[in-house]
């Protein structure tokens, strides 16, 4: 078991260098597509090891769960957490209804007068 763990660490450390030095652009693209099918773009996916794990890919991976959780958020306490996630992913900023929901619930229909 120890040997396998050490081998896995070594491969994980050397994988970016191997990909950069031996693969042409076409082969690198094929490698990226292959890894994208086998390694999801979760929050702990490292872009240095798996080139397909970009911030955009991570946003696409997390969006369904965040959408269910944040629209509307279960408690007003989670509103800032939802805002932080939406600020990291500007692609989904327009789908963020949480702040509108909380403000309308807190204000109970009051209109801001200037």
Automatic annotation (TrEMBL):
Keywords: Signal
Annotated TM spans: none
GO cellular component: extracellular space
Top-level taxon of origin: Eukaryota
A GO BP entry: positive regulation of Notch signaling pathway
PANTHER family in the record: PROTEIN CBR-OSM-7, PROTEIN CBR-OSM-7-RELATED
UniProt name for this protein: Secreted protein
GO-annotated molecular function: Notch binding
N-terminal signal peptide: 1-21
High-level lineage: Eukaryota, Metazoa, Ecdysozoa, Nematoda, Chromadorea
Keyword Signal included in the entry's annotation: yes
